[in-house]
Amino acid sequence: MINKAGCGSGAACPARRGPVEAVATPARGGETFMKWPAIGYLRVSSLQELWEAQRTHGTAAQILAGGQTLLATLAFRLAQPGVLLDITRIPELRGIALSDGLLRIGALTRHAELGRDPLIARHAPLIAAAVPYIAHPAIRNRGTIGGSLAYADPAAELPACAVALDATLHLLSAQGERRVKAESFFTGLFSTALAQGEIIAAVEVPLGSPAQRSTILEVARRSGDYAMAGIAAVLELDAAGRVASPRLTFFGVGSGPVLARRANAALAGRVLDEAAIAAAAEALEGDLDPPGDLHGPPELKRHLARVLLRRALAQFLPAREKAA
User: Fold this and answer.
1) What pLDDT does residue 32 have?
2) Are 68 and 6 in contact (CB under 8 A)?
């Protein structure tokens, strides 16, 4: 969960107290028959052990949690850390609970756990709805929410959900703790506000009111692929159908999650109807500056974002809600 470290899978070392160390050894003759670089392994079971390991190994250390990004970067030699610090046994990074009007999601919570936890389903249904879009079951069984947020892939679902829900990230380091709003946490392409040695400890989501509505939609070439474009939408509707606190957040169309401020302003205070949706879609043009990529040019991304905005908001129209 350190910036760009991704997440990792736990290694197959026997359970025991205290740090567990291992290192890849060369084959006979000095050759190493594997794609990964030679690398050390250290499993820590407390935050204090983690801080001590970081002091010992410095910038050569890289965090290992769920491994679903990290393992690929190691295989392609895009990352060559000196040692992996396995944090999967640290209890402070686990658990889903209600506390002081917030839903606290431990950073080591796996994607599959997000999809089946009753507190998530009740208080953050947007996150539960995002889980089926995340890759494939094998990935969801290992990947963690903290790893996804730390890696900050611009096409990933969970960073956009965190911004749409106005979540706060609880960060820890040997120097202390701090909290950063999700919309300020993502600073650029695969870049975050995490400082060297910091980890994500938890995601804190404000509890929504009964008037809150949310949905997530995306367009991908195949199920499990990264999104060509996506939207995570959160807003409140009063009894008259008037919109409050809209947070339409797009992914796959920029260098990170894009909070569509102009589109949100076009919706706020209006009764949600076809005219309001059209106004938000028109205002969205000023929110997005998507790069072209292998899926197509920027205008394709803009078109997909407008289509997704209309589809998402149409789910909240009164007639649709009564039919549901």
Assistant:
1) 46
2) yes
Domain boundaries defined on the chain: 20-91, 93-206, 212-318
Give me the residues of the chain with pLDDT under 70, please.
Answer: 1-34, 320-324
Distance CA 65, CA 14 (A): 17
**To which H or E segment does residue 29 belong?**
none
How many CB atoms lie under 10 A from the CB of residue 274? Answer: 11
Dihedral over Cα of 220, 225, 230, 235: its sign: positive
Coil, helix or strand at residue 310: helix
How far is 192 from 184, CA to CA, in rounded Å?
A: 8
User: Do 79 and 49 contact (CB within 8 A), yes or no?
Assistant: no
CB 219 within 8 A of CB 304: yes
Query: Which tokens in the block code for residue 298?
Result: 């920027």
Q: Residue 200 corresponds to which amino acid?
A: I
In contact, 197 and 176? CB cutoff 8 Å:
no
What phi and psi values does residue 296 have, to the nearest 5 degrees? 155, 180
Nearest alpha carbon to residue 59 among 78, 80, 36: 80
**Topology classification of domain 212-318:** Enolase-like; domain 1 (3.30.390)
Rounded-to-10 torsion of CA 54, 60, 65, 71: -170
The CATH number of 93-206 is 3.30.465.10
Query: How does 203-238 read in b/e, with b if 16+ C-beta sit within 10 Å?
Result: bbbeebeeebbbbbbbbbeeeeebbbbbbbbbbbbe
